[in-house]
Design goal:
Helices cover about 60% and strands about 0% of the residues. By secondary structure, it is mainly α. Helix 2 packs across helix 5, helix 3 packs antiparallel against helix 5 and helix 5 packs antiparallel against helix 6.
Length: about 140
């Protein structure tokens, strides 16, 4: 997961065996959560967001969401535990500035309102998984 292009990252994840895919996204969200400054160089924000979305896509609450397309579904993380969902939520909070350790990022998007809605929806799916405390 080292290319910053979202389609490339999704395709790369989809090509990995399920256990390796889970390991890859778990490693990214853990690094972002533990060391937010990695977003300034080591881990591009796009890579972090794709890892978070792949985890959310592996949860039952993601079904029928407008952002869950075929490409993301193919890259979805299998066997998402509440612990992994929690780490993804923490990484999302770092990414969007809700965590006190967040680093200043400039995410360039063409539709800020749609991007905000996507981030909020990802957060909702992850929060629902934590509330339910079960496996996907």
């Amino acid at each position: 997961m080292n290319n910053a292009s979202a389609p490339y990252l999704l395709d790369g994840l989809a090509e990995l065996p399920p256990a390796r895919r889970r390991q890859a996204v778990a490693a990214v969200v853990l690094r972002v959560w533990e060391t937010p400054s990695v977003l300034l160089g080591e881990i591009p924000a796009t890579q972090a967001l794709i890892a978070i979305a792949a985890i959310a896509a592996g949860l039952p609450g993601a079904a029928n969401r407008p952002w869950l397309d075929d490409r993301l579904l193919a890259a979805a993380c299998p066997e998402v535990t509440s612990e992994l969902a929690g780490r993804a939520l923490c990484a999302l909070d770092v990414l969007v500035g809700r965590d006190r350790e967040s680093v200043p990022l400039e995410l360039h998007v063409t539709d800020g309102e749609a991007a905000g809605a996507l981030l909020d929806d990802l957060r909702d799916v992850l929060m629902d998984a934590l509330r339910q405390g079960n496996r996907a």
